[in-house]
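Worked example (supplementary).
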Amino acid sequence: MAGGLPRRIIKETQRLMQEPVPGINAIPDEQNARYFHVVVAGPEGSPYENGVFKLELFLPEEYPMSAPKVRFMTKIYHPNIDKVGRICLDILKDKWSPALQIRTVLLSIQALLSAPNPDDPLANDVAEQWKTNEAKAIDTARQWTRMYADSN
Amino acid sequence: MGNCLKAHNNDDISLLRGNESSDVLEQPSGPPPPYHHEPSQRAQLYYPSPNVSRPANQLTEEEQIKIAKRLGLISHLPTGIYDGTSKKGKECAICMCDFNVGENLRILPCMHSYHKECIDDWMMRSFTCPSCMEPVDAALLTTYETS
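After joint prediction of all chains, the assembly is encoded as:
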């Protein structure tokens, strides 16, 4: 187990570079090939549109038997993402499968931005706001996007 | 305690076609294949649930039973040697390496196949097919009922 990087990680990295996912950029760290610097563009039509969100993704020793660890580095107002950037997403926890990949994980996170799920919250106050006054919540999400996720 | 877990397969009677006996038959003549256990560093860790790993001697009795049952079920799933003629699925979805002729594969009831080593490692954590998420034991029960 010790030593070299598993073939799968090398392959996934190469494929990510050769066929990048639209709106997603994942680059392995120079020092640690299991650590990826990720940038996700806020999906069109969502309150995160025009925002640029930084994330970190780490492939644990057990990968792909256990899920990658992913966290938002950019502050974001979303019912399934908490203050420190942790993400509530089933495939990162009990629904993980080794047939999933870095690519599919990042696509799911992008989809989560388009479809917040306040019924399965991680940030309770945000979820509460989302349920009681959705228009206001969306407005706050837009404001935060401008404040913290400005692409310039 | 826990030693019984390592000596799996020995006295299992295969209900489904395949497994060790057929593997041996398909071996070309030559020296007998070495009998091998799993490498000891791997055999020491078990996964009573997907995110919990513990060495055998720290498992509760309940966990030991669960794992022993799981080992039994896994050993009843058919295996086969990849002969290069399969129409689809030339890559193992777990290690993302191509199947090579002569490699040992395991075929799940949903007909998805993987390298035996790759899928057995996963099924000790979660008894589901990585590709279709079908619970393997539910599918097994259906197989038994209809056969």
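Two points are worth noting when inspecting this output. The radius of gyration of chain A is 16 Å. The longest helix of chain A spans residues 134-148.
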